[in-house]
Amino acid sequence: MRRLHQQPLCVASALVVPWLTLAAPTWLTLSGVGPSWAVLWLLPWALVDGPVSGMVAGLCLGLVLDGLSLGGCSQLPALMSLGCWWGRLGRRGPPIQLSFNLGLLAWLGSCVLGLSLWLQMVWLDFANSFQIQEAWGWHTLMVQAVLTGLIAPMIVSWLLLLWRRRAPL
Amino acid sequence: MRSPPWPALSRWRRWRRGWLWLLLVALFALVRWSKGAGFADAYAVLTRPFWPGSAQREWIQSGVELEQQSKLRWLEKDNQRLRDLLDLVQSSSGVDELSAAVISRTPQGWWQQLELGKGRLHGIQPGDAVLGPGGLLGRIQSVTPITSRVRLLTSPGSQVGVWIPRTQRHGLLIGMGSRRPQMHFLDKDPQVFAGDVVSISPSSSLMPANVPVGVIQSVDYHALPAPRAAVQLIAAPEAIDWVQVQIRS
Q1: CA–CA distances in Å: residue B61 to residues B67, B70, B102, B132, B183
Q2: Which terminus of chain B has fewer Cβ atoms in its 10 Å neighbourhood, N or C?
């Protein structure tokens, strides 16, 4: 059986991430903030396909998503690190498949991603960093993490099941 | 002539009738003093089914709108003439407006932006002003051949020169990520109050002058080095499907 990154259909499924990021369905937002679709796709991919593939997927997703945003700060470092970490978790120990564990990993991933973006924004806009911290940074970070963690058991479990069938360990 | 059997009772009746008339007069005086209260209200309640319907109201409103539009056109022409006399930069004569559909929106989150369905091929350039119903929404950040990305005024990193027309005090409108950007005044004493309208500074060389932006919500007079104010934007990006892009020729 071929690995996941060798199957064009599985690779093409990554296109859903920028599409959903642009579509930003309002019925899936909490206080105006949507989930991190990149985390929801990258988590099962890295768990199934390993650390190197996870890191490369994080790199590709980061590049595309950075191109779709206003710029200033990048998702790339956080997504690459998460891809590598989740890939290592998938390779070592028993396979992760409990809904709670998947939700927790997605929550942590979203927190790492949000923290990385927030730190970059504070670094770039140091003059207003204290106000950003008060008004908005924590709010966006926590809302996105909670929403991603809640959605993950549904989407990540389904993708994990699908991809493990196509590329068993 | 025969005297009544009960003279006291007769006097009482006459006295009571007189008081009744006096009470009635007092009541009318009260109505007069209250400018017809009670009567006008009762009339309004009774005639409510016969009031002009929504069609007539819309007709009157459209007439008022037409009148205001013609006044606005005249004022714009006059403003343009005066700006030309003063030889101010960025006169509106070199600006065309282009309608564009909003194809993607993220008014909240890490990046606060809109994606428009028109781009470089339609003449849009980075830096062009984007207006919605009510006022300025943001500026074009980047363009592709058929799309363009708008940085909203609420987005961190957004900075626009604004002023308060009432007091003619200038400031900088800075996006803080929240729904209300902050206006940093240039003066120590801006003499501004909640409710004052904020618009684009007439001396702005990048944005169309005097376009309304928002309303002052609260003022922090103790902020350093100069007072700051939270501004409630007039145009709401959450609910706008079409915007106007001001293209600089």
Answers
A1: 10, 14, 28, 21, 34
A2: N
Q: Which of B115, B141, B157 sits opposite A125 (nearest CB)?
A: B157
Q: Give dist(CA A104, CA A100) in Å, integer.
A: 6
pLDDT at B5: 67
pTM of the model: 0.74
- List of chain B residues whose C-beta atoms are within 8 Å of the C-beta of residue A135: 176-178
Q: A133 at the B interface (CB within 8 A)?
A: no
By the 8 A CB rule, do A147 and A35 touch? Answer: yes
Is residue B171 within 8 A of residue B230, CB to CB? The reply is: no
8 Å CB contact of A135 and B178? yes
The 10 Å Cβ neighbour count of residue B174 is 21
ipTM of the complex: 0.85
Least confident of A63-67, B72-76, B147-151: B72-76
What percent of the residues of chain B are helix, what percent strand, and what percent coil, each to the nearest 5? 35, 30, 35
Identity (one letter) of the amino acid at A10? C
Distance, CA of A121 to CA of B198 (rounded, Å): 27
B198 near B215, Cβ under 8 Å?
yes
CA distance B115 to A89: 37
Q: In this structure, are residues B242 and B118 in contact, taking their beta carbons and an 8 Å threshold?
A: no
Does B115 reach chain A within 8 Å, measured CB to CB?
Answer: yes
Contact A135 B110 (CB under 8 A): no
